[in-house]
Amino acid sequence: MPKPDDNDREDDSVYHTLEKLSGLLTQTANAMKGTPPELTSWSWHDLPVIAQKWARVIRAAKDFRRAQGVTVASSLAELRAAVDALEDGD
Questions:
Q1: Of 20, 57, 60, 83, which has fewest CB within 10 angstroms of its CB?
Q2: What is the mean pLDDT of residues 28-54?
Q3: pTM
């Protein structure tokens, strides 16, 4: 995105806001999808769907642990099994 003229404060403000939001979306995409391949950026169009899936995974993990009578995850393998079970249900 080209930077606006330094003389136009409103455009400059919009530019900085868009740059900040762009950075936040990029960081969110990378956090949810992993580091992109070299010279590549992840698309943002599917972030709401991915966030919903992550929310379901977290809820399933909490429900799983609650059903086991455990309040703190004690085993990564058990958590992965809950995630796998959720993904198999898609």
A1: 20
A2: 95
A3: 0.58
